[in-house]
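Please fill in the sequence for the structure shown.

STRUCTURE ENCODING:
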């Protein structure tokens, strides 16, 4: 595949700098290199930063530090013990005087619109400022209201005088299994500071404030992702992209016409069948939740880090929701057993420089389980339904078993890398992407 595909550096969810999309080094080891090379990369990145740019904030936090890489004497698990709740800071951290904290009521149409507008104009862009994430209001409500969510973890910063929302950060609770331990964590996401305020050092204060509010609920660990290298990734994943509407992708500069390729040959190359091929392939329905939960829980056992989903989680995260999440399964025509499952979520990007197109409609591979249907066939059916739903591109990380279908189904590697992090939890070794069973939005 000759296209050089581009995408926003996916999921700069929690970078602690106001310049959210800049990275000192985007080099990532190839899939054949071992863990040591990731350690070497991290050290190289750290050394390449001038003293002034070192991660002043993160070096004060209970996260894996670059200097400790390769030290197998450090124990796996929490880095710092929990503090007695009475000793957790009760008052919010101080903001610069023009600003004030608010707790964002995502159920309010007015507040949800404010959050949508802040993110749509100021959140993650690609390096060349051609695309910017455009999370829908329905998506935000889905992402921020899982079972047991805390409203106090949806944090905004307003200008006191105008009441304008200028920054945002969130957490949602999750049960994450790390090897054999179930750890209650906060998944921290949507850190966004208005472009005009990127020099105000708001982000570190916001991270400290969401951490304080998480601690008040007696939760001491967190997971997050970023498009930049911070201390210290538990793994680094690669984004892959499968063209569904190659003409539009080339028109808007998302991908390029390959060498010696014409547009008509490119369209033919990516053409998909009109109908899915797997007998019993259908949309997930409410009565499928118990069977899908069993299937997913059994599948997740093979990964080092993975969510510990129960039926309530599966109902929330995987029941189909129009323009938010799509889930399909395979029900054996003979036994009516649910044998396979695939899902993807909808995350469009605004196209910033095109006269003809304003939105790039992207599907993101979510959780997939193959037991009876070959994974290649299952995911090809997922591509077919995504194409029928007018998606322009289908994106996937090389996590879980995804590597088994990417090249064969004509996915190409993108520019975006995604680094996964745990807060206040140490793993002895950097994971391979295939050891990770967690997808963060």
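FILLED IN BY: designer on duty
SEQUENCE:
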């Amino acid at each position: 595949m000759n296209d050089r595909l581009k995408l926003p550096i996916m999921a700069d969810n929690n970078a602690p700098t106001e310049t959210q999309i800049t990275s000192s080094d985007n080099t990532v080891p190839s899939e054949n290199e071992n863990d040591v090379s990731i350690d070497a990369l991290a050290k190289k990145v750290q050394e390449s930063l001038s003293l002034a740019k070192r991660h002043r904030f993160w070096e004060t936090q209970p996260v894996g530090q670059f200097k400790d890489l390769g030290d197998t004497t450090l124990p796996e698990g929490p880095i710092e013990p929990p503090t007695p709740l009475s000793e957790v800071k009760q008052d919010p951290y101080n903001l610069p005087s023009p600003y004030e904290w608010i707790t964002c009521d995502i159920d309010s149409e007015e507040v949800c619109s404010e959050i949508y507008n802040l993110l749509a104009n100021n959140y993650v862009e690609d390096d060349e400022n051609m695309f910017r994430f455009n999370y829908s209001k329905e998506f935000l409500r889905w992402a921020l209201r899982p079972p047991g969510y805390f409203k106090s973890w949806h944090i905004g910063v307003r200008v006191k005088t105008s009441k304008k929302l200028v920054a945002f950060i969130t957490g949602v609770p999750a049960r994450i299994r790390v090897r054999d331990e179930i750890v209650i964590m906060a998944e921290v996401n949507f850190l966004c500071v208005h472009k005009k305020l990127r020099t105000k050092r708001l982000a570190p204060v916001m991270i400290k404030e969401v951490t304080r509010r998480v601690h008040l609920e007696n939760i001491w660990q967190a997971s997050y992702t970023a498009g930049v290298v911070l201390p210290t990734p538990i793994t680094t994943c690669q984004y892959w992209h499968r063209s569904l509407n190659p003409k539009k992708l080339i028109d808007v500069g998302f991908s390029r016409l390959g060498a010696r390729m014409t547009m008509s040959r490119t369209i033919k190359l990516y053409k998909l069948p009109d109908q899915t091929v797997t007998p019993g392939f259908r949309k997930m329905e409410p009565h499928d939740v118990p069977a899908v939960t069993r299937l997913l829980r059994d599948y997740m056992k093979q990964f080092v880090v993975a969510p510990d989903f129960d039926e309530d989680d599966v109902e929330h995260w995987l029941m189909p929701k129009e323009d938010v999440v799509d889930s399909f399964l395979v029900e054996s025509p003979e036994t009516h057993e649910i044998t396979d499952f695939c899902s993807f979520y909808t995350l469009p990007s605004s196209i910033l420089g095109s006269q003809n197109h304003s939105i790039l409609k992207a599907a993101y591979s979510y959780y997939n389980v193959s037991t009876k249907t070959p994974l290649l066939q299952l995911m090809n059916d997922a591509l077919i339904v995504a194409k029928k739903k007018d998606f322009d591109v289908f994106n996937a990380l090389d996590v879980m078993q995804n590597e088994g279908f990417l090249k064969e189904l004509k996915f190409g590697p993108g520019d975006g890398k995604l680094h996964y992090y745990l807060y206040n939890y140490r793993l002895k070794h950097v994971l391979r992407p295939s050891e990770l069973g967690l997808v963060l939005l």
